[in-house]
Amino acid sequence: METAKSLFSYRPYWASRFGVAPFLPMSRPEMESLGWDSCDVILVTGDAYIDHPSFGMALVGRLLEAQGFRVGLISQPDWRSVEPFRGLGRPNLYFGVTAGNMDSMVNRYTSDRKSRSDDAYTPNAAPNQRPDRAVVAYAQRCREAYSGVNVVIGGIEASLRRIAHYDYWSDNVRRSVLADSKADMLLFGNAERALVALSHRLAAGEAISGIRDLRGTAFMVPFAWKPGEDWAEIDSTQLEILGRVDPHPDPYAYTSVSQPVAVDAAQPIRLVSREERLAQRAAARAHTVLRIPAFELVEKNPVLYAHASRMFHLESNPGNARAIVQAHGERDVWLNPPPIPLSTPELDRVYDLPYARAPHPAYANAKIPAWEMIRFSVNIMRGCFGGCTFCSITEHEGRIIQSRSEESILHEIEAIRDKTPGFTGVISDLGGPTANMYRLACKDPKIESACRRLSCVFPEICENLGTDHGPLIQLYRKARVLPGIKKILIGSGVRYDLALRSPEYVKELVTHHVGGYLKIAPEHTEAGPLNHMMKPGIGAYDRFKQLFERFSKEAGKEQYLIPYFIAAHPGTTDEDMLNLALWLKRGNFRLDQVQTFLPTPMALATTMYHTERNPLKKVLRGGENANPCVSVVRTGRTRKLHKAFLRYHDPENWPLLREALQAMGRADLIGNGKKHLIPAFQPAGTGLRHEGGAPAGRRPPGSAPTSRNSAKPSAPRGKRTR
């Protein structure tokens, strides 16, 4: 993988003389109190401003401030008027626009397309404080506020919409958000490198239209534009979609005997080493752009959409990814390769910036649920190599784990202890997207740079993946003995197939860091949906459960696993959900709130949902090797049925389940015995209809509930966005 310029090696911008702001200013009086006459960068976000590294705009703002720029912030502006976007004046460099820590559509609507009643990122959880597709709405208002101003979009909403994508809420394929927002540039993923480089180059006088070489950026260019004459373009449909796939020709391989090459006897024969050949191939890829089918084609053709999705995901490794281009009418959306991950020292400095670690004083005593949830937690890493097809983390943060140092993490725990009001000695989480991927990486950097696998742990854990949990165990032990720390809890989900490689880690976790319940996500029990999710078989869960119960007993503690499951995921049949319900009943699980699959833009499972084809395999147009269809649940009734199977114990669901079981030929599961899934009687006042003369009954008693609700992630820091 190529090296990158250190994030903190730039010469600070002249405005660094103004020093550090207690909070990034959100008003003119705040700017004036800092001695500013203007802002160099103005950030626009759909979230309340909380000056804490778990919130994207605070992290970005403090990072730019550390580079010497004056950064203002417009939080949750009224998008129906242009005036809030003029509140801080015209930025000298650009407006930076994001929907916030969550996609605005996921934030506002459930998996059933119903409006949510609250917003965790808004003071007092008030709903409807941001528009639909907030990036587009905000970017357009910035343009309206100041003609000719530079507009840069980023964050998870922009990242997941950087090419043509299926939009669940409108049930059609939409253009890249670049085309709809009219932004000058899109920064995708964890964009610190591109953001810092872009800001310094704009400050030096470069035009944004001429900055085309930054990794992690996307922009619109004239059709067939290339950065230079030495660039080559490959049509992706020649690689997989038109028929049998032949291996890529190796231009550096030896010529076969049947095609002799004339040799100049005066020139000595030079053998090319494998390392040199790989270097030459990497250099060739660095000047190659992959053209995926145009928006106008994928909009109408599911096969081409599935192919484009597969090609996009195969070009996600920063070590070997090529640039991607997709036509939108007479212009192209050009995506440079993903950014080089931050090193541990760089990530440490990002998290060690002078955050106030509190909401902006403008919110007074308002409660902001997202802040209440993470105020005593610490993010120890980024990224996820699990590759779950329903999850957005991989598309946004990448598969390469970026970990903070032990010293930086312990320092943040001490800062929480010393500076955060209300701290009682309990750290609510040391985690990230996954609890136990800290410092896990490929054993060989060369293999990592060449790898094109979509997951390091599916169908099995890769033999090249380091699974040593030792550094994480050591971190736990050092954290819990810090003065003033009573308990360190692990709130992030544990990847249990990885944890099985380290029984010592499971023992450490169970003995010291579980507060009665531990989140875990088998997602399903049946092979069909699990294969389409790229999740391990339920046997791995069973083995982890045995260790969990064993170590809990040894510690003298009564503790429970809280398993999460998804209903109506692509590849799931009614029979799969029935088998899952029977598994839940055998285990005496009575789930409270459950999750129905929500197709988020650009996820592989969303491609399955929209196209009914599997992008995990080669997408061929026809013939015996054609990509088989994927079973997809679309109708509201069937989605309700799949969800009802997860809540088989709820009398409200019994009429629907009885009808389904009878249609499936499984009426034997209806009755009043232990072997039955649901009873034959219907309690009065429950269900969609009532059985004549059915005796009244009570709701079955609940056991340990789960807390995942309709695909809405509850924490702002790296949790899975369905």
Structure overview:
The chain is α/β, with parallel strands linked by helices and 722 residues long. Among the domains are: 15-213, Rossmann fold (3-Layer(aba) Sandwich); 376-576 and 633-648, pyruvate-formate lyase- activating enzyme. The chain contains 25 helices and 23 strands. The protein has a ten-stranded mixed sheet, sandwiched between helices. A three-stranded parallel sheet has the order 21-22-23. Helix 17 packs parallel to helix 19 and helix 22 runs parallel beside helix 24. The longest helix has 17 residues, at 538-554. The protein is globular and about 75 Å long. The two termini are 30 Å apart. Residues 243-263 and 689-722 have low confidence and may be disordered.
Task: Give keywords.
722 residues; alpha/beta; Rossmann fold; pyruvate-formate lyase- activating enzyme; ten-stranded mixed beta sheet; three-stranded parallel beta sheet; 25 helices; 30% helix
Strand content: 5-15%
The tally of beta strands, per DSSP, is 23
CATH topology of the domain at 376-576 and 633-648: pyruvate-formate lyase- activating enzyme
Helix content: 25-40%
Question: Strands, helices and their partners?
Answer:
Layout: H1 28-33, E1 41-45, E2 50-51, H2 56-66, E3 71-75, E4 94-97, H3 104-108, H4 134-145, E5 151-153, H5 155-159, E6 165-167, E7 172-174, H6 177-181, E8 185-187, H7 192-203, E9 217-222, E10 232-235, H8 237-240, H9 274-285, E11 288-292, H10 295-298, H11 302-314, E12 323-328, E13 331-335, H12 344-351, E14 358-359, H13 369-374, E15 377-379, E16 381-382, H14 393-397, E17 402-403, H15 406-419, E18 426-427, E19 429-431, H16 445-450, H17 470-480, E20 487-488, H18 496-499, H19 503-512, E21 517-523, H20 527-533, H21 538-554, E22 560-567, H22 574-586, E23 595-596, H23 604-611, H24 636-646, H25 654-663
Parallel strand pairs: 1-3, 1-4, 4-5, 5-8, 10-11, 11-12, 15-19, 18-20, 21-22, 22-23
Antiparallel strand pairs: 2-14, 6-7, 8-9, 9-13, 12-13, 16-17
Helix pairs in contact: 11-23, 17-19, 19-21, 22-24
